[in-house]
Protein 1
Amino acid sequence: MKLYFASCFGLLAAAAAKRVVVDWDISYITIDRDGHSLRRAISVNGKLPIPPIVATIGDTVELNVHNGLDKATTIHAHGLFQTNNTHMDGPAMITQCGIPPGDNFTYVYKLENRGSYWIHGHKAHEISDGLRAAFIINDKPDEQPYHYDEDYLLTFEEWFKEEFADRMYQTLNPKQSFPPPHGYASGLINGVNGNITQTLKFQPGKTYRIRLVNIGDLNSFQFSLPGHEMQVIEADGEYSVPYVTDGIDIAPAQRYSVLVKAHDTDALNYQFNATMHANFIPASPGLTPRVYTGNIEYNTNSPYQDTRAFYEKPDFKWLNDIEMEALDGQPAMIPTRNLYQDVGNKLYNTGQHLDHMNNITFALPKVPSLFTALSMGSLAMDPRVYGPQTNAVVLNYGEVVELTINSPAQLPHPIHRHGLTFQIVEYGPANSPFPVPEQFQNIPVRKALGAPMRRDTMSIPEYSYIKVRFRAASAINFLHCHYSVHAAIGMDMVFIEGPDVLQKTLLVPEEMYEMCRKQGIPTTGNAAGNRGFDFTGLPNAPALADQPNSGPPQNH
């Protein structure tokens, strides 16, 4: 089986070796990616876009990273299971300190799951400045659940003319209006301007797997392929029962695979559509939404099908993941614990509008949460030691959690849980303290039927809640909105899963502690690097504007 990255990288063969070595030299470059703006960006080996990593389930990938930036960096392999490997997950100050400028570090990924993933920076939101690429894990040839002849990869992302730090300044400056003026990005498909997407070649009678990977951090992409039936067989690395649909709205960080059976004749060519949009940004002709098309070519001499009727049909069907079923038939897990998180944006006493989960706006600890879990003995089971702003929840190893996230706002949220997947069991109308616009009233409750679909990134619709279920591991698993701006201003939390088990089973390489020491970062103690509940040294946590600032917890 061959994987084609439909761009300048040409043909990529699935790696056959059991040990796959990838070298990344991360550095700045100046580049015009969209044909409109020359700006500084983050590259790998002096190139953007970054070539996909391709391997096979069961392989071990060794990613050798050299940090050529002027600040620390980390790498997160989005969606990869990290059993007994949570120290390689990558979020800065959650599972590791950053790789210092000029230093090297090797991430070791033991590939337990197969499917379509991606990999990106996870410090200072370097993802938004280019540090992102697809990560494809193939099935072993004798274990493929579906037959297909060829494998295409399409990555989608937005590209702003400003660096992320500039956009964040506008967002966090209390002297500026909130929200700041909307920025309008260009859309890239396979790393280049979406208007010049390379043609996908089809041959009559063949079946194609097309992987759709949104590696962006703000805009969704609506994908459709008029004139062909799309059978969805994968969401976020998990295989599904074939699901027939006309269109797929792919939120940031989400991935899908579709099977497409080519026609028996080459009499016509076709076009796919990828419309980049953010529903919370008012439509502006030529700016948002942006419509991109690419060619499906059977014969260079054949005409193209007129697709207008396809988009006008009254029964056009968009994918809804609550309707999908897991291919392996795993039934809904029975929860032993229920958690609730309310998400949104509020005014805090800093004068800033910050995002929150249960009114806590996230801030990083002074000690990586993993190192707190490993060094605090029995106190590691007490969520307070992880600091007042990490919104940490401690879970017992193996317990089944039902997590409800309530989002009473007129914008969706793509929420990602690190480490493992979850079952999507229910959507419904949010419990909202605000008036709900008419178009979002009467949202129905929708429940999973049969085997709930599993994935690692949920997209919570406007004025809605979602319920997901998962089994706690022995790991430190970050959960956050995958709009980079929202994650940067506080829509994050940490699951501390089985820390007592971690203390007995996980051995962190000495070089990871050494990276911290080089930067003066403590590697033991609570979130402040102290014993017990002494949080001296942590900055005061922002309080809601109508509440006094309570500061960090006092010594007990």
Note: The mean pLDDT is 93.
Protein 2
Amino acid sequence: MIVISCPTGHPTHKEEHYDNQDACCKELKRLEALVEHYSHPGIAPPSARMTPSLKINEQPQWKSWHAYKYAFFVASKVTQMTGDALAHTIWGPRKKSWGIQMTLMSSLMRGAGKHTELMDVPSIRTFMGMGGFGPPPADALVTPVTFQVKRRRLRGILESLDAQETGTRELSGEWLVGKRTWQRLQTEWKAAQVGQRTHNPHKPTERVILYIHGGAYYVGSAEEKRIISVPLAQYTDARVFSLNYRLAPECTFPGPLHDAVSAYFRLTEDLHIPPENILVSGDSAGGGLALALLMYLRDNHYPVPAGGILMSPWVDMTMSGASWDSNAAYDVIPVFSPDDHMNPIANYLGSGMEKYLMHPYASPIFGDFKDLPPLLIQSGDSEVLQDEITMLANKAELAGVKVRHEEYEDGVHVFQTFPFLKIWHVAFMSMRTFVLDTLPQLQRGITLVFPETAERFMETEMDSDASLAVSADGRIASAGVKGLEEDSEDHSTLYESDDDHCTGCGHGKTWSLEQHHPDEPKVKISVIPPSSPSTPPHEAALLEKGMKRVSISSRSSSRSRSRSRGRPIFSEKPVPAAPHASDVDTAWQFWAS
């Protein structure tokens, strides 16, 4: 696991360098020991908060004289936020790297789950759909798309749902491309129209990302999550298809999984995009759904995508991690009582609670991860899902998956939705590296061809009168599509930093990302050190060429890393792995000249 932090100069927050090394290492061992509890689907872990037999309370009936509860809630929340803002100003933030925006956001959401008598699903959807104000710049192109769901003779758990399709049901979504990508595509498409397209051996592999939005399975949409999908398209130079799947409680599991599978097969079968050119991505519930999609494709012997990018994936519906309590005071997720009528788990599983609570496609942490494609997993150390995501990464690695888990210090749940955070840019830069550098290294020896038919289908679908120009935060741009003709550029470089670290598990060994702008904060990247000081033969050859090893792989492995210009790759030859992980034959590296 890689731990990424943002040092702060606030006088009340001194940098901690893990003085208590025993406590640091014991915490890692504690989480690894819990993995065994998630190896038996159908058997809840001892610490489970949700159980299959749990009875859900009915939604209380609203009475007109209950209006005073709204006034009390608003008054108490204003008081709480005011107190937190004053405390932030006087004594410093509750988390050392937080600005006032994050302090207020955490304060707003803290304790909201205790007032569910004032909520219902439609009201939450309305709240989540509120957008920003002001005329934003044009940063990306968005093209809304509606398509019919075909019967595809699906196997496994989706066989009965697939058999019910008549070809009349519709799903929607939207294509997103960044400004730079759109300019490149326009040039290539125009050249093809006049027969001037030429082969460029240095052109990066065309990537398409199927993005599945989060929102606890009952709120959210592709439009609302442009705050993630737009920078995802910008940073990765990929075409992103953001799916609107059916939401709970109107549609329960496995309906949303059926929609995700349908969207994937539309890309591969209808648009003729090769699976090896596709990645799946998702945040929160969408991250869990993206992982379930990968597992379903593998289990039923369909071609799987090239990789996955999971942002704070929700993978354990039993809510058994201790971080649901320890991080509740900091995270932006409203923590509902298990028997509450607003509990998203009950809404998503519906009458299938007893049957599906620990099903691997609903709670992927209970599944088998063998033969899944490479995964980039990002999470925060201040989110309530911290424990289950850590166990997910550990369990996937033990199954032989090439996985990179990045845990961001002071990061809340899906911190990628908060551009004002210092770690936001670092997270998307890591996604860029994963897509543009890591996957090409993993796919060496595989001929990747983006068919002309796929290019033509996508050109027709994306270059449409319905297309909109949007800003990086998803709002419609005032400049329109013409605003995409303007150019922009972004650069960043990496430099090494020397800090104390835990010699047992490695927390605290850091490197920083320095922006060309002097006002940008420095960002530290902590990694896990080697369990053995020996240098593998293939790495010795790199060292002889002047390259430098500066980091290694995740907490349960002794795989080595090195670093160069911020481009992570996997090593070419096997590196000694941790016990019970003999099938893990590659390691993350950064290389440096």
Note: Residues 543 and 549 are 7 Å apart (CA to CA).
Protein 3
Amino acid sequence: MSQRRLSPVTSRSSSGLPGGEKAHPLPDAIPEESASKDTQEDALSLKQGRFSWLRLEMTRAEWDIFIASTCLKLLLFPAYRSTDFEVHRNWLAITHSLPISKWYYDTTSEWTLDYPPFFAYFEKLLSIPAYFVDARIVDLNNLNYGAWSVVAYQRATVILTELVLGAAVLKFVRGAENPAMQRIISASLFLHPGFLIVDHIHFQYNGFMFGILLWSLLMARNDRKLASGFLFAVLLNFKHIYLYIAPAYFIYLLRSYCLSPTGSLLPGRFLSLANAVILTFLASLGPFLLMGQLPQLLSRLFPFTRGLNHAYWAPNVWALITALDRVLLKFVSRGQLGSLAVNASGVASTSRGLVGDTVFAVLPTVKPIHTFAITVAFQTIYMGKLWTNTSYKSFVTALTLCGFTSYMFGWHVHEKAILLVLVPLSLLAAEDNAYFRTFMIASIAGIYSLFPLLFTPAETLIKIVYSVLWAVFVLRPIHRQVYQFPQGILAVVMDVSERLYLAGFPLLHLVVTLLPLAARRRASSQADASDNVDGTELEFLPLMLTSVYCAIGLVWAFVRLSVIYLTRKD
């Protein structure tokens, strides 16, 4: 498939599009006016054209999707909510009740403010109507407040702020070379199971922030690179996890915007971009710089006392290595592999999903410097390719690989960070069969890896049925569009292996559903036993199996995408 699919949109005749569809104008194009119209109408048309990139002009099908999805989200108001719900309620109280000088010092609750200042300002804005809805929502000492007023208010703010994402995916359709396929991809993003699980049930604001990211990528697609860089700088000051993909933005904007094709610096563009970024960071960090609180703020944003793995192992390379360490420990404890030394402090460190420092029992312990070095090494390889090819498609792929690398090799990675891979990868899903297969494997493994976030019975059917329906309505039409029969024995073996892997997810779900029942039966039958083989290991086993099985798919998707990007010239 040609590179033009993801390249910036250019004007063309209707014959240049599939099915003879008429090309959409550029977002900032000004509608033509006939000479017969009066001056007032011309001025109105000019004004409308200037802001036409903001207009959505939704079709009936798009309205149907929006209304149906909103109704579903409203029905999920009473659903399970994690401790993140209280985290954000506490941040509403902090920003409403305390002066800005105390925001990053307050310890009234264990859920201290640890997001960048723009998100704190965002919480401050949300706290104003929250006070009028129910003043107890923003009471700093009203910990673990769970009245219906706070549930309805905070759930509603997630739906409303997610409109940023909805507007972005709609604009991706406008001006696309294949509007029909882009409409499927845009719908898949707005209806993504990851957002439903993490935002609308578990509770966070990822849809809002990924909306900003997609607006930034849209500006890059439309060759508005200064706006793209500015929006990404804004995003960094909302949530610092997006530092994972910052190298791709740096190389892309430097090479394609600040340098000429011959490599010489363009001072005007460089200064414009630098000023936009600096002013954004000054607006965010300025008040804390003036108060001398920057070290305290940074200590909240970057706590280095956490372990290699999160409580539930994010399915990455370290999950596989951690599982291997546990397997080797079993052999050593049975007298096999006796030549291997055992670190006593690592025996209980990684088997029960503890948040503390991870120490391996048999394998060498991984330290933060190791994860940092590996991450930088891989990202440097991708940035070298991006430097030589700054097309939009190359940028999106490199950006996805930056996020993927950080997810694979980062320190204390959260399972929710997989969205940083799945969202930009969605934009590449319909490029060709190779990209689609990578997207399909990463999406199924990545979405399933989020299932343990919802462990209550009431949400089990929701997450399964919704994810299956999403896969059917998204993966099948793209598959029909891009499928190619595998050529060669190696391609056939890969195809069969990938199909078998994906077919294993129903079996995996059956196993992780039955294991807790077996653990409870075992614990009850050995209630009076004093041996070390109790039900606690079986209790964590479903999480470990989920993490390891999903890690296999995600590592393979990472390898696939890396090979595609580095071996192709487009």
Note: The CA atoms of residues 252 and 390 lie 6 Å apart.
